[in-house]
């Protein structure tokens, strides 16, 4: 399985996508940070409780098949905080750390958390549906059952069906990858082992294709491919709804434009404050110095305005390296 290694920043001091919403690049947004902590603690507790008490928390909080005797509705939420092994949680948390913090800074904590939980639940529902049709197909091939008869047989097998358990944040993580690809489709990222960066939109399409192929070609590999696709599907539908809604400014473009507008307003206030009223009692040299200063500030403001207009018309990727550096320098003032 491919592993994401880094966001390609084009040798500039980190893309504006990150710098414009965070004062300190090393700080994680609250929801992303807390999700990482909760998942890590749940993983550690799973081993501690299993070793000391012999209780498998994955069996308690993992998502059981809805016809199994151990199924509980709360498992649609708790399953996404449980993981099967170190590789499982490592991949999910790496993707959450890399892409979750970017998406959260664009949407804000409440919208990001809602998206994460909503898509995680959606992925769980899709997995339940997939398990039902897989089980029905198996029973039908042996007993030639109708759909309603299959429900009756499954209810009699409720104890045996407890083995159908799903754990992991993968559904929500795949939804975050989709969100990143929809918000920043032109952003370039590295994927191991590919030697060159690819655009986020192609990365998302590639990963969705891999999951769809895997679901069809290897249905018994014990990987919840349809849960991954379910998370992406629910994420796509939610983002489309937000973009169409009146109050929805959830895309990177809208929030980014909001940031640039605020930066423009701040820049204009800063320029007016610096220019101030001229002091008639000052010397001629001071007057000339003030004039040069204000002229230089006006020129810088015009350059920033031109760059912001270019972003709104053609996107951030259309900027030259010098224009990106100019915008980065001015955003820090």
Biggest sheet, spatial arrangement of strands: 1-4-5
Low-confidence stretches: 1-25, 247-254
Report helical residue fraction: 55-70%
What's the rounded overall pLDDT mean?
76
Structural write-up:
This protein is mostly helical and 333 residues long. It is 67% helix and 5% strand. It has helices at 16-19, 30-53, 57-61, 75-78, 86-107, 109-143, 147-156, 170-183, 200-217, 225-244, 252-275, 284-314, 321-331, and strands spanning 3-7, 63-64, 165-166, 188-192, 198-199. A 3-stranded antiparallel β-sheet has the order 1-4-5. The protein has a two-stranded antiparallel sheet with strand order 2-3. The chain starts with a strand and ends with a helix.
Topology of this structure?
Elements (H helix, E strand, L loop, with lengths): L2 E5 L8 H4 L10 H24 L3 H5 L1 E2 L10 H4 L7 H22 L1 H35 L3 H10 L8 E2 L3 H14 L4 E5 L5 E2 H18 L7 H20 L7 H24 L8 H31 L6 H11 L2
Antiparallel strand pairs: 1-4, 2-3, 4-5
Helix pairs in contact: 2-5, 5-6, 5-8, 6-8, 6-10, 8-9, 8-10, 9-10, 11-12
